[in-house]
Amino acid sequence: MSFLDKVYWNNTVLDYAIFLGALLLGAIIIFIVGRITLKRIMASNQQTQSPYGELIRAGVKQYLLPTAYFTLFYYCTRLLTMNENLSKIVGGFSTLFAIAMGAMFLSSIATLFFKKLGKSKPESGSLAIKWLIRIARGVIWGIALILFLDNIGVKITSLVAGLGIGGVALAFAAQSMLADIFCFFTIFFDKPFEIGDFLIAGDHMGTVEHIGVKNTRLRAIGGEQLIVSNTDLTSSRIRNYKTMQQRRVCFTLGVTYDTTPEQLKQIPDLIRQIVEQTENVNFGRAHFSAFGPYSLAIEVVYFVQSADYDVYMDINQQINLAIMEGFEKIGVSFAFPTTTVQLQGKD
User: What pTM was computed for the model?
Assistant: First the structure.
């Protein structure tokens, strides 16, 4: 019997030589092809400046080449005669490698997708992206673990049922927190407001400073910080002043009943002139609208062409002072609540 025909662990020396030769030859081929492929990708990327060039190169280097090497090793082991236990070990390791590589690849794809989604986002967007990436990775690796256990013969039916019951119990226990987290993603995707917006939501009023997973922080007009849960914020009617292009101002003036009809006719024209002479203001209307219990009502509407509250207050003050001066010139007096008491006695 020649040396090549000697048997060790169910295989001849020749079998081992063929195994090692095939493994070495295949590894050399994969190495050469991989180097050529990576160089061509780099050269093409330098010419085209494609944003996907580095991504493709990383995919080849991190996933394609390791998969090729392992596939080579797996098929080379088929050249050998292995006992049942060793065959199970190799098969289990192969399954683990395939599932792990698939999970890593899908995790990378999910990460790239969500990072692209979160580009040019404010602080809240970055935080949402981080949570979405974590959730996606958790789901992917959870499925990968279940697949691996199922492939190696573990009965996962009872395990999945137990996890389902535990998940329901956990969901009930953390119902409030989960609702806030869900509302956080609602804010991120729907974007009813962003950092820097001035909001009025129910009894809360302020500028958005931070959008967290559970709470949103507002800086109130008084300077204090308001911390409002995302659930309370999204369940209320939100008035967002950031996108306001103009501010409608509607108010009613009351003049005394001794105002003559001629004076009443002058008032709408007087107010129109005052408003039209004011910068950044569009006149709406001015009418003698009603007979009040103690005054004659004049309703005025105009539009301030600015969302800035300070600008609005300056214009409001300017118009109010001009109206007072105009009324004084034409002899019209403002009314205020009065009560007339008539005393009637017996003669």
Answer: 0.52
Domain ranges of the chain: 3-150, 184-240, 247-330
CATH number of 184-240: 2.30.30.60
pLDDT at 118 over 70: no
Measured CA to CA, the distance from residue 167 to residue 7 in angstroms comes to 55
| Per-residue pLDDT tens digits for 228-260 | 888 888 888 888 888 788 899 999 999 999 999
For domain 247-330, give the fold. Alpha-Beta Plaits (3.30.70)
